[in-house]
Amino acid sequence: MASSRNTAASSWSTVSSAKAPPSRFTCRNTAAPQASAPATEIALPGGDEKILIVDDDKMVAESMQAMLIRLGYRATAVLDSNQAWHLFREHPQDFDLVVTDLTMPGLTGIELAERINCLRREMPVILCSGYNYLSDDITMSRTGIRAVIKKPVNIAVLAEIMRQVLDRAA
């Protein structure tokens, strides 16, 4: 009887931000071949803007908040879209960008974006969705949504899109 044994080599990749405070994300791929390339460092764009994260999935919201804080942002995570709306309505100048999930109990991400846009028209919103959400120019214009990101969110993609959106809004 022939037998085989799978051996998993480890490879590491590190992602760092160029802004202070320095950030480093390390990912381990245990399925990588033994002769893999050395770890690669990628500088992620960061900033110091105030970000409101809205997602009803606690793990998603908290991990996104932690990643954004490592990139230098001042991030607030809220798990309930109605609470996020009340927070924003009470303190509309306390945020520079909103990153929201599309599908949540209470207000959807689009409904939240519409309300935010009515109160503070220049506020950029990034919509995150696990669904194949097709945005159209009318909806994006009406809601202030500047970008749509597919879940699961890749931190490098999120960091790059956030920086582009924030720079355009400035």
CATH hierarchy class name of the largest domain = Alpha Beta
CATH H-level name of the largest domain... which superfamily?
Response regulator
* Spatial gap, N to C terminus: 68 Å
Low-confidence stretches: 1-18, 26-30
What descriptors fit this protein?
five-stranded parallel β-sheet, globular, three-stranded mixed β-sheet, 170 residues, disordered N terminus, alpha/beta, Rossmann fold
Architecture overview:
The chain has 5 helices and 8 strands; from the N terminus they run E-E-E-E-H-E-H-E-H-E-H-E-H. Helix 2 packs parallel to helix 3 (109-119). The protein is of the alpha/beta class and 170 residues long. It is globular. It has 2 domains: 10-42, no CATH class; 47-169, Rossmann fold (3-Layer(aba) Sandwich), CATH 3.40.50.2300. Mean pLDDT is 83; it is low at 1-18 and 26-30.
Helix-strand layout with pairing:
Elements: E1 9-17, E2 24-32, E3 41-44, E4 50-54, H1 58-70, E5 74-78, H2 81-90, E6 97-101, H3 109-119, E7 125-129, H4 137-143, E8 145-150, H5 155-169
Parallel strand pairs: 1-3, 4-5, 4-6, 6-7, 7-8
Antiparallel strand pairs: 1-2
Helix pairs in contact: 2-3
Summed up, what is this model?
This protein is an alpha/beta fold and 170 residues long.
